[in-house]
Amino acid sequence: MRNANHAQRESIRQYLKHFDENPKYRHAHVNNANCCYKAGVKLPRRENMNTMDSTALHVALHRLRRKLTFWRVVAIGALAVLAGWAFSRAVAPDAGEHIARLRIDGFILGKQEKIDLIEKLAKKKNVRAVIVRINSPGGSTAGAEAIYRALKRLAKKKPVVTVMDSVAASGGYMVALAGERMLAGRNTITGSIGVIMQWPELNELLGRVGVRVQTIRSGPLKALPNSLEPTPEEAREVLESMVREAYDWFVQLVARRRGLDEASARRLADGRIYSGLQAVKLGLVDELGDEHAARAWLREKYNLPKDIRVISYRPRRPLLQQLGLPGALAFLWRALGADATTVPLFMPPAGLDGMLSVWHPRPAATGGR
Description:
single chain; alpha/beta; 2-enoyl-CoA Hydratase, Chain A, domain 1; 2 domains; nine-stranded mixed β-sheet; 15 helices; disordered C terminus
């Protein structure tokens, strides 16, 4: 072993001596020699220095750097994994009894990942109760209904309290109805109970630039409405009947969950928004309060420990979301003068279609400009 180390040191001394005639390169080659020594790479002996061209030398050094870079990346990755594991262990949701915190934010689509998470909470024995924090202007009617039904199934096994943050309107209010107790801030925006369907008609604009769209359909109402042709009255009647049916269901849900007669619920469900204070006075919300008040209510009602922990649960996020791309897009949208909650309305997610239960003010009305 000692002989091997001596041979390496001798090779590096010969390497440095060879480049003594080129002082301006001396610093770079000293560094390369030191790296080679640390990595255990044997350099050419003196008798081979003069015959070794510069291209071969650069190739050898490039291979060395690439090898060192690979192991540095491996080491950094291992440290990151270890740190993530340690952090997850430090805040592990399985550590003792606790209250789960579930967030419903942004445009509601009823994604399966969120529903799966709600079902997971129902099965966890150490989750004593669930606080649902809602900050959403609504979303698709079917998506909000799916989240509501999942929370109702959860509520059969564990206490569920819903807390409305800045906005819990339309589909956001529908989700909040699943809670055994509903809380809102004094200035929370809620209400907007109703259903809409909307679509742009671009046929006149296309006609002005000389574009005509030809359609062959199997029936007179197939693929209607769409943006490329006027909507016939018969198709409009079909859509209106669907909206009325969904609206009636929404009103009946409000009446049943809030203990109102249907006539009173229908008067409140004309599409207008309410502040949290107004909603409490009208019986649409139980009380003014935040998560602190929700925890106090749960402790008193279900005799929970005073120091019980509250742990946040969230679905596994795709890689792009973990890298913060959606947040960057929302920041760019706000920089252009629009409110972040309106992003899904002007740039709807791919595949969004159907009836909506959503409150969507114009950007100028939200104070975003």
